[in-house]
Amino acid sequence: MDRKSNDEAPGRLSRGDGADYVSLVADLSARLRFSPNDGQIWLDDQRMLLIHLSSMTALRKELMDSLGMDQARGLLTRMGHNSGVRDAELARRVRANMSFDEAFLVGPQLHGLEGQVSVEPVKFEWNVETGHFFGEFIWRNSAEVECHLQAYGLAAEPVCWSQIGYASGYTSAFMGRPILFREVECRGAGHSRCRIIGKPVEAWGPDARDAAYAGTLTPPPRTADLAAAPDLKSGTVGASSGYVSACHLVERVAPTMATVLFLGETGVGKEVFARMLHTASPRAAKPFVAVNCAAIPETLIEAELFGVEKGAFTGALTSRPGRFERANGGTLFLDEVGTLSLTAQGKLLRALQESEIERVGDTTTRKVDVRVIAATNVPLREEVRAGRFRDDLYFRLNVFPIELPPLRERRDDIPLLMNHFLRRFSERHGRELTGFTERAVDRLMTYRFPGNIRELENMIERAVILAPEKTPIDVGHLFSLADQIESPFYGVMEDGQLGLGGAKPPLGAASQIVNDLLAGPLKLEQFEEQLIAQAVERAGGNLTLAAKMLGLTRAQLAYRYRQRH
Which end of the chain lies in a sparser environment, N or C, as judged by fewer CB atoms within 10 Å? Predict the structure, then answer.
């Protein structure tokens, strides 16, 4: 087959044509990362789980015994279908510049990498323009077959339900139209192997009823649309438990008049959540007024909040309303409320309790209808104990507290935020970039983000500006020289073993390297030269980063590098 960069071109692949099928798996295994300190496993930007096959066997048996075979089959098929759709997005991104067959084979290869089954392509044909697809694959060592045989023995029908769902979901998302795979042979039903065939739903005729198990009767989204989109009303992005929990609390309190206090470190998005709360409230059509209490001098805070009358003090040439009046009928957001002085706190407390304000230099009070949302990055309870914050104001603000976790505790959200900011800033600055390199993803997934989401946002914007057009963002575009760090995770090496950072020798293999070096023709000087050259190449010519990889200072590496080049 003529391999073309245009993945819309029709083509055909038969057994024997994909000689590079196995060798291509290296680019996928390199994206599998283990972070035991955080209790997380990642495949590119998707969090994964490593579970016992016996546990899956018990779960499958429980589902079948309690729900019946049809409902259990539907549930497992839909679970696999969702996984396939997710992996289709990864396939398009990882092999964006490869031919259709190389990109498509990510799905079968990921199925093997994830421990589900070994996939052997027999034949597949495609034409994205016309929607034509035909695929035939052999499955070996199916995990689902093992589960079923352990629990029930041989079955009368094929039993690889979640894997069929995966194949259908992956191909449907890849082709942009519903594709149904059916298992025509299954080792769990007494055959010598598992064999599957896939084609458009309508091409199956009466057998298309199997599509109901996977829900493929409606066209899935194209892969370009598969990434999680932000909430269009609020601009928020996330999928982590911390983010979802905060969203549920916002949704619960939004219809009420309760005062809300957002707690969290600087940069976690407190104002974004405050705007989301306002948008979801009955006051959405009214003003949303935000004020950063830390940015206003103490002598002016009263005038800024409550307004000022003409002549109240030198420079007050006209009367003007304060933030409370401007937010009348709507929402007032007080950011960094913990920085207010005790005098300002007392005046704020009265305004909250009485729903009325008095301008500076005025003798009359004005009623205001304002919902107050406050935010702070300091622990107010400790401030109260230290006498720096009024306890009565604290209890008035702390009616409905919502804790926003830092980004380092929301790592599931990092990939979504990366793609969201990449799209936003590419459009804003008129740039066209192809995504992120594997090294860039590694660094971002393990970086602690002291500045939280704001820091990530600034990093992505800087990278969008620095990266060359139509290339992926790399580590050097994201981090300054002082910020580049080493990744504390384990990755899969070329030999299938785990190595620290995916770039170092496997744990416990140092002695083997020494033995190989002493037994082979390669001398120490040559070994050092190759090691340095490889580190510099891996770091993209950045000597500071290469030095960190080798455990040297930049000066030490520069001296050795200059002597050899």
Answer: C
Closest CA to 84 of 201, 199, 187, 164: 164
Structural domain contains residue 253: yes
Which of 502, 529, 553 lies at the terminal end of a domain, its last residue?
502
Tally the domains of the chain: 4
CB count within 10 Å of CB 413 equals: 23
What type of residue sits at position 257? M
Instruction: Give the Cα separation of 85 and 555 in Å (integer).
Output: 48
Q: Alpha-carbon distance 263 to 375, whole Å?
A: 6
Query: From the CB of residue 440, how many other CB atoms can be counted at a distance below 10 Å?
Result: 22
Query: Residue with structure tokens 């599998």?
Result: 32
pLDDT tier for residue 94 given thresholds of 50, 70 and 90: confident
Report the first-to-last Cα separation within the chain, whole angstroms: 42
Identity of the amino acid at 378: V
pTM over 0.85? The answer is no
DSSP for 303-357, please give it: HHHHEE-TTSSTT--S-EE-HHHHTTTSEEEEETGGGS-HHHHHHHHHHHHHSEE
Question: Angle at the Cα of 539 (from 533 to 541), degrees rounded to 5?
Answer: 70
Sole residue written with tokens 């406050």: 374
Range of the domain at 527: 508-565
Do residues 529 and 564 touch, judged by C-beta distance below 8 A?
yes
Average pLDDT over residues 371-379: 94
Quick one: 262 and 355 in the same domain? Answer: yes
Helix (H, G, I), strand (E, B) or coil at 75: helix
Binning pLDDT at 50, 70 and 90, where does residue 557 land?
Answer: confident
**Strand order across the 400-403 sheet:** 288-292, 331-335, 371-376, 260-263, 400-403
How many residues appear in the chain?
565
Q: What is the dihedral of CA 153, 157, 162, 165, to 10 degrees?
A: 170
CA distance 481 to 542: 9
- Does residue 347 contact residue 297 with C-beta atoms inside 8 Å? no
pLDDT-derived band at 242 (thresholds 50, 70, 90) equals confident
Q: Is 358 left (phi over 0), alpha (psi -120 to 50) or beta?
A: beta
